[in-house]
Amino acid sequence: MNISKRDKVVLGIGIAAVLSAGLFTFVIKPINNNRMKIKTDIERKTDFIDRYNEVLKNKDVIDTRIKELEKKGQQMRSYLLAGETPSLAAADLQNLLQSAGGELGLTLESVKVLDPRKADIFYQIPVDVSMRTEMRKLKDFIYKIENSPKFLTVPRFRMRVIKNNIQFEPEVIEARIEAAGYILRPEANLTGSGTEGKSS
């Protein structure tokens, strides 16, 4: 079979085109893709190293911040009632109220522990106390509650004045006060209903 010079040229061009396409598809393109992947990996690792170095530079600042947060956490815990359970915390609150009353010469006629209430990450521990006293001592008692080193509140307060027929004697106040302190809720109870103890 005789192939003309023109056909040889055309055939040569065709073969060259096929070889060029194959070279690009199976050699050049994979090499470029591999280079791009390597470049991306290097950039990612470089970015990680830069961020790690930045963390190392700020290590002292971070350590200081962590210590500050730990200190604030300890300070916050000092405002809470002693005891990890509602019943133990209620006992601590009763002691605080009895102590405050004793300093003022007050007799707490009744002390009743109420059910704890969930308040965000805390349990509110309420205790209901009843007493008979004069207005000045009652004010001093409430002042002591609200200015305690522990974080205590007075969610409810009721009082009734009892008429005094003795001249120049202070009126008698019959009061019922609900005082409350707080403890952190156990981690296990943050996602569940938990067990709320009750003591009396």
Structural notes for this entry:
The structure is a single chain. The chain is of the alpha+beta class. It has a domain at 86-189: Ribosomal protein S6/Translation elongation factor EF1B (Alpha-Beta Plaits, 2-Layer Sandwich). The chain is built from 4 helices and 5 strands. Strands 1, 2, 3, 4 and 5 form a 5-stranded antiparallel beta sheet that branches. The relative contact order is 0.12.
User: Whole-number average pLDDT?
Assistant: 79
* Main sheet: strands, sense, barrel: 5 strands, antiparallel
C-alpha termini separation = 115 Å
| Helix percentage range | 40-55%
Report the structural category. Answer: alpha+beta
CATH architect. name of one domain: 2-Layer Sandwich
Which overall shape is indicated by the principal axes computed on the Cα atoms?
Answer: rod-shaped
CATH class of one domain: Alpha Beta
Counting DSSP H or I runs of 4 or more residues, the number of helices is 4
Low-confidence stretches: 188-200
Order of helices and strands: HHHEEEHEE
> What is the CATH topology assignment of one domain?
Alpha-Beta Plaits
Count of β-strands:
5
